[in-house]
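Subgroup meeting minutes
Present: P.N., E.W., G.H.
Scribe: E.W.

1. P.N. recapped why we're keeping a running log of single-chain structure predictions: easier to compare across weeks, and new members can see raw inputs and outputs side by side.
2. G.H. added today's entry (562 aa).
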Amino acid sequence: MERIWLDSYPAGVPHDIDLSDYDSLVALLDEAFGKYADRTAYVGFGVALTFRELDVRSRAFAAWLQSLGLRKGDRVALMMPNVLQYPIALAGVLRAGLVVVNVNPLYTARELEHQLRDSGARAIVILENFAATLEQVLDQTSVETIVVTGMGDMLGAVKGLLVNTVVRHLKKMVPAFNLPGAVRFREAVARGASAQFSAPALTLDDLALLQYTGGTTGVSKGAALSHRNILANVLQSEVWMQPALNNPRRPLAEGTQLVTVCALPLYHIFALTICALLGMRTGGLNLLVPNPRDLAALVKEIKPYRVNLFPAVNTLYNALLNHEGFRQLDFSGLVGSNGGGMAVQQATAQKWLDLTGCPICEGYGLSETSPSAICNPTDTDAFSGTIGLPLPSTDIAILDDEGHPVPQGERGEISIRGPQVMTGYWQRADETARVMTPDGFFKSGDIGIMDERGYVRIVDRKKDMILVSGFNVYPNEIEQVVSMHPGVLEVAAIGVPDDKTGEAVKVFVVRKDPSLTEQALFDFCASQLTGYKKPRHIEFRTELPKSNVGKILRRELRAGAG
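Output recorded in log:
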């Protein structure tokens, strides 16, 4: 196929990337640990973790995992927010030849059970704040080894009254739990320091990560991402970033260590690749923000630093623009603001540019593409209103319902082929076949248009997916949960516009019990669904629109709500 977008590439960006220097993602990590040993890699709660410390501790954790009898290809779940333990565990699991299974810490017991059972995870590293949820479902899973850690664990080596006060405060926030046999993270690392580590033979084809997503249908599935997939996307992102780093309008001093604000959750593929792994590749410093909703804490964390890179979703950019403390920060070092996860609104982009002098560079990707597939040039000086150009080594086809390319300028399904595209959905060949074309394109479920320059614009969604703050929400799951309430007869879920989250979930309910109230249903959903999935709006109706075969017509509900 003709890559018409290559003529629009910024000067110096290669058309393709070369993976031949590495036989696995671990080789890239090992290189970074040696090359940048004395640099600080991560900062969390004001505590620094150097590349050398990350190397030593992750190697010890890998040795401990191997000592348990875990073998190459076994899955290990990581259920933590952005704390220093996460990059140590991430690197340790990968170095042991095991597979990372990222888990949203805010999952309910039902959601957690599904992911652990489906992945077949044999071990889990979990923040103690969420251990009570694991306790509820442990017997229904394959988990044999539990590693528990606390928000204050990495602060323990730091002396001082203030730090000790913080640790005690964090401990008070932990619900009671009982997980017999669980090992503390610091103890596991200490044991591993005296255990033998055996570097496994890894190839680019080996599985590195199961990233769970609804995909283009409603059942939560693990996107199987190989070492090649993740490595490729790190290198694609690195070369695509170069024009921003060499932009004469926003010059950086030679030898600058890039400082990235990591406010996006590391269990989300966007932050995992663009913050954690790209940061390690470039020897950068990641400022870990555990709770981006706490804007005051976010501002306090990043204030001492001259920030260079700020990846975020539209909702976070917008919230920060309205926070006075953030508006007072120094943005003179900011050279890259990468917007992804959800559509960037033009009003937000303009306000961000006015405040920081750095345009938001919008991109596009999915869990199935590791995630980045399309992005605006990073030396842009204006908001384009598009999602940009295909990345190096990436082909984009705009396909009709029969899988044929549409004429240029016409709408069709955005489909992606490249080294970052997943190997398939974990143990779901049927679901994989639905989204992959015979010639290797992944069908995204989003409808777009490519112009004559190769820029892509999203115009619609093929499926009924709802996008809340960059997270996929699937009506089938919401409807299934709401329908479990004994007072509900029928339910349909749609997405409606929301100023804060882009979209919010709205459910239409036909009551079985006339006394059922909105509050009762809100409370029920809160016990079954994590925060971003919970309905924000409930509308009771006497009946729902249906087709002649009885299928509820969501499109009619959307039309009425719009």
